Each structure stands twice: as C-alpha cells, then as structure tokens.
Batch of 2 targets.
Target 1
Amino acid sequence: MSLDWHIGKTELVITSMPLLPQFLLNDPVSFHRVLPLGGATQCRLIAYVKTAGSGTVGTVAISYRAGGYSGTFGDYAPAGPFLLVNVAGTADTGWVDLVEAAREDDTSLALVTFGGNGAASPALSYLTVLLR
C-alpha cells in the first residue's frame, strides 16, 4: 500500500501559529482525509519551510480518528509524525510508524499545529503526507 496526500497549496501561511493544538489553520474540513489505512504501517510528512517561526518550535503533525470524520478536535489523537517548522528549508520527518489504532479502513487523518508562540507566522510550501 502506498498513498500520497499532496495538500496542494504552494504557500500555506500559519498566521500567529498557536501554542495549543488545533486543526491546521483552525479548519477541520480542508485539511483532513478519510483514508483506507488497513494496510499502512508508516507515515511521513515533508514540506518546504519558506519562512520559519521565529523564537518558537512550531509543529505540524498528523492526528487520526478511527471511524471516519469528525469536526471536533478532541476526537483526534496523535498518529505519529511531527514536523518542526522552526528552520527554513526542507523539513522531513522520515518514515514514522503509525500508531496501531490508526491502521483501519475508515481512518480520518487531520493536519494539526501546535507549539507556536501566537505571534510568529511560519510559511510552508508543498506540504505532503506519504503513507505506506
């Protein structure tokens, strides 16, 4: 099994990146996919960090919810990879094992952010999720 999820934005600015976890851009609809992950065991996040979050270690991560989509952030749990966006250039998590509970055929994956300082606004290009 191999799945690629290209976010499709050439520049994605995370304005005033939040400290506490939330859906990417606080948007539960645009940055999620329900995928058949029954055969997937690993996940990888790759992005080009055009503008790094200054003075902070902001993070983009994947969270999951078994059983399909939910627009409620509290229904999701960390799935595995965490991409740091505090340094400009290519950021890559490498292959990370998906948590066992995320390996279902109706898993909803959502991109989330956290660890910002509420002021810095990192800009990303070519954010891609790879699954195998």
Target 2
Amino acid sequence: MYQILKNYIPTKTDKTTITVTFETKSQKQAFLDKIKSKIVEFIIQELNISIKIDINISENIKSENKIYTQSDKFTYLSDKNKNLLLFKDKFHLDFE
C-alpha cells in the first residue's frame, strides 16, 4: 500500500476533501480495506477536523512496464546504456 500511495499522491480538493486517484479497482479496494479508515481517524484525532476522501479510478494514468524476468531487466537497462549490448556480445553472455 505504501507503494500505491507513493505513486498516486492524494490532492486536496477543498478544505475538507482529499481526492485519491488509483489505476485499478484492486488498488482502490486495498485502500478502502486497509488504509482509508486509519487515515480519517488519524486526521480527526490529531487535527480535530473532519475530512472526506474521494476515490477515483483513472484510465489515463500510464503505468510503467513492469520488469519481471532477467531478459526484461537487461532490455530495460540496455535501452538506457547501449554499452551493455557490447559487453554481452563480447563476453558471450546469455540470460535464461
């Protein structure tokens, strides 16, 4: 959940409303199940204000391609540094 909130920073809509936009329904549900009530409770206790959290799902947010395999990692890094391809060829390396 930390990673989700790190990627999708909540925005303040007005004095008492915070909007959080997620990419998928599962992220939204995880937020509702694990975090929302704790955040609201904390803000009420510590700041003595009542807030409302609006949750949206946006189809416009682009997610980066996830790197799962060794070849995905190599492709990603070699796009950033072409010398890795030379290194791989010179030492006859293969990722399996």
